[in-house]
Write a structure and sequence with these properties.
A hairpin with a 2-residue loop joins strand 11 (414-416) and strand 12. Helices cover 54% and strands 12% of the residues. It is globular and about 85 Å long. The chain is α/β, with parallel strands linked by helices. The strands form three sheets. Strands 1, 2, 3, 4, 5, 6, 7, 8 and 9 form a nine-stranded mixed sheet that branches. A two-stranded parallel ribbon has the order 10-13. Helix 2 (32-51) crosses helix 3 (53-83) and helix 3 runs parallel beside helix 15.
Amino acid sequence: MDNSQDNSSFDRLTEQFINRAGTDCAYITASKRQKIFYLLVAIGMLFFLKYRWDYFLMTITMIMAFWYFAAVIFRCSAAALSLLGRGERRVSDAALSIIKDDYLPVYTIFLPLYREANIVNKILRNMESLDYPKDKLDVKLLLENDDQMTIDAVNQCQLPPYCEVIIIPGMTPKTKPRACNYGLERARGEFCVIFDAEDRPEPDQLKKAWFVFYNSPQNLICVQAKLNYENSRFNWLTRFFTVEYSTSFDLLLPGLSTMRVPLPLGGTSNHFRTEKLRECGGWDPFNVTEDCDLGVRIYTAGFVTCVLDSTTWEEANSQIWNWVRQRSRWVKGFLQTHLVHTRHPLRTWKQLGTRGFLGFYLSVGASSFMMLVNVFFWAAGLIYSGLLWHALAHGETLSSSIIGPQVFSGYKGFELGAWRLHVWPLFYWGADENTFWAGLSVLLFGVSMILLLANLFFVAIHIAACLKRRYYFLIPTALLMPFYWLLISFGAWKGFIQLFTNPFYWEKTHHGLTPADQKEKP
């Protein structure tokens, strides 16, 4: 997992970040100390498995269930705080109406574009529609030097005077954060913001962000606007994705802000005080979810982030494999962020404080873990449900199937080759009970109930997010979200494997896949 290489293969800005951050960047996926720790854990687990497989099963199940449920309770608590009306910064129309253009500072907009030739005109139109004095806009079009199609598309446009094209040198890693660091170096604005190629921010978003900065202490250096989708009705995938984003940006992030813990930022529409962002070192060019990492580093530096009640509209992935590529990159980046900020756990704990450390761990590490293990819990549940259905179909009663010790009246179980499988009783009790199996069955019953309750909690906050957005047509989709989590788990495992095989590879998300007439105009 040590993916380091000679620094001479990197450009000047990347070398500067490495020299400044040291081991606290994703340049090295796992430090030697971390590799030794995880190797010892793996060896210990193998010895435990060989010694007592049954105790091993109980221990692993308890640990997985504990962190899974802890992450769910943490997210539900954040959502509950948000529903109480806390965590968002709102700017009224009346407040905006008194802002004079003369008061407004220069605002830099970073537009990292890679293989986006088909939507260059769209993003330029979206920038033109911003309600901000054009002579105070500083738009940086960040283009990769090998992306000739996008370069040609930009050259064919009649660029307004506030746009500047920056060609990023062709060196590794080829990532969005590396491109943004080039933009940050040449930014003229007192404030800056990132927009993705397909973004359509609400016209007054820059003014609202400036108003929040202007009326806040200097330690507020980041304002995260909300993200949502304009093609939510297009197909089943965009519906699920919209429910997820509504939950994340309308409930979870405002709640985390209220908790005063690190915020895993969204990849776009995060506004910054430019000089303070430079003090934080900009973006980690090796981290494929640079936004999540930056949110933690902002908190570590003692700065504050808040959530702005303004929405940037995007195009949700409507094709399954395109969605999987994007999801695998997100999870890989979350794992990178977790590894980077747990290089020295005690130091990180001291820097973040107990509340901040737990918030970081539960929103980044435990959330990634939850995505990975979800498939195992689902597999176990489906197997048990299948065996239960088979028993009931062959004359067993529900009570005789779930209460043990099982005395099957003529039921031989499900035969699978040389294996004969019976339903594992959820309650193991009676005159012939075995102490070990009785304890194990009660443990697994408790875990099953915890996981069921956790899933119900999650579905509830998805419904609450739909209600808050007034997306009533998405409530049936919210009820089916557990099936979407299975898809998330598949993408998570792809990202986890890629963490070992190609950690810095930026899997491109293709935009412009939904026809314009299939998009809503919120």
